[in-house]
Amino acid sequence: MAMNTDKNSYTIIFAIAMVVVVGSLLAFTASSLKGRIDANKRTEKQQNILFAMGISDTEDPNEFVPAEKAQELFDKYVGDEQYIIIGSTAKKSNNAFSIEVKKENDKVKQDDNYERKMPLFIGKKEGEEFYIVPMRGNGLWDAIWGYVSLDKEFKTVKGAFFDHKGETPGLGANIKEAYFRDDFIGENILDASGNYKGITVKKGNADPKNVDKSDNEVDAMAGATITGDGVTAMIKKGIKMYQPYFETLKK
Predict the structure, then answer these.
(1) If DSSP states are collapsed to H, E and C, what string results for the chain?
(2) Overall domain count for the chain
(3) Residue 41 forms part of a structural domain
(4) pTM score, whole prediction
């Protein structure tokens, strides 16, 4: 006997069946691709950390190392110098690489007593040490994140990488551009008295060419005030959380 397709019950059953089938296909696809997705995320993180150290596979410092060389170069310049920071203490651990700043932020919001785990990467290049701090914040429309590398005095920025999820093209999205991030190189995060101050993205800071590296400021992007404020807050809060540990290394 033929099924009556005009009944509401048929429509409901058909819709449920399609949801089950499509959901199963999506779950299978996600499961089968998980290994590749995780590998790509790992490679991208390695590229970003190396970029913050100024490491490139070409003569252009604004080029990322190729994906196929990321692991090799990460092992060369960072290796097992990976740490988990909790307050003022550090534990050397390769698990530091798997710590996600966003998840740690969420855990702190959900539990006031939770002890935040913060990853720190120490790279070495041409006899110099780089302390690479990952950070995450909020732009105008969505999340922004980055990596900032500091010198061994924990005073000067050696390099930076910023990215975003949904900032406006040509405006806030320019945090990815070389002309913006390069302004941070050489900038101090401490004031004249040696106290932590961070770096402010400031409109009209009277130093558009960023010649003064001791003013704790970089020039803002045109038409992207809120995104710039987000970068300011991200850096000030992100690096400040590491200050208790950095102070122990100065003693």
Answers:
(1) CCCCCCCHHHHHHHHHHHHHHHHHHHHHHHHHHHHHHHHHHHHHHHHHHHHHCCCCCCCCCCCCCCHHHHHHHHHHHCCCCEEEEECCEEEECHHHHHCCHHHHHHHHHHCCCCCCCEEEEEEEECCEEEEEEEEEEECCCCEEEEEEEECCCCCEEEEEEEEECCCCCCCHHHHHCHHHHHHHCCCECECCCCCECCCEEECCCCCCCCCCCCCCEEECCCCCHHHHHHHHHHHHHHHHCCHHHHHHHHC
(2) 1
(3) no
(4) 0.84
